[in-house]
Amino acid sequence: MDEFAKSSGLFDHYKALQLLKLSPGADFDGHLSRFTTLIRAIQREKGSIDDRETAAHWYNSLDERGQDDIDRAPAQDVKTFVQMRERSRGFYRSLKKTWKANAAGKSITTNVATAAGPATTTQVHQSLPTQPASTRPKPSTFWDTTAQRPADGVTDGSIFNLDFIRKFRCQRCLCHDHSTGSCKQSKMAFESLRCARCGTHHDPVRFPEAHCRDSNCYRCGKRGHMSRACPEPLPQKPDTTPSSSTGTEGAKIQAN
């Protein structure tokens, strides 16, 4: 009975660790505290957990941006869990500073108007660049319509880094006339030089089984790869077929 309870507890801890994910804007220290608590619980139940396994769980607990940052790091800088953790700490702190700066910029007009009245509000509007009102989604700040697709015979895969690929509206076939999710090319462009899971060129990852494991592809709807690396020949069409219950309800309404 004790052994069963022990194995059941260990399973629950691993399950909780698998579900733990650092969402954008979340508190890094709080995430680290929950992660450490689960690792210690596993150590108590299991007896030990090595550094490589701990690092793999940490990598999997990060969002895609955090994983990309670790993948881009020199191997010697993220060899241990402690190195990986500290790199993540610096990365998410820099993101948080950016978010705060953006939020502060958006609230300048409101704060000044409250403190000084309408006249000051007018002055602030005159000193800040005006933005046209629009309900259309803004294009990615990474896009560069002057970026050109490499020649088909290219052999240097290093050019297919994340910064270069983000310049294209379609990051799958590297063009500007359609989005990644609607790409109808049968395969990813330059697939022999790009990762089959994340669609970029990078050194071998330390944990292949965790790389993009939780990514959701919005081109085919499957998990385990990013949309720019989608292996499906055609994008998945949304299901617009009405359900049978809806059809029945419609028939009843017409009959009445």
UniProtKB/TrEMBL annotation:
Q: Where is the composition biased (Polar residues)?
A: 122-148, 238-248
Q: Per the record's keyword annotation, is Transcription included, yes or no? A: no
Query: Region (Disordered): which ranges?
Result: 122-149, 226-256
Top-level lineage group: Eukaryota
Q: Give this protein's Gene Ontology molecular function annotations.
A: nucleic acid binding; zinc ion binding
The membrane-spanning stretches of this chain are none
The record places domain CCHC-type at 217-232
Supply the alphabetized keyword list: Metal-binding, Zinc, Zinc-finger
SMART domains associated with the record? ZnF_C2HC
Q: What is this protein called?
A: CCHC-type domain-containing protein
Q: Name the species this protein comes from.
A: Perkinsus marinus (strain ATCC 50983 / TXsc)
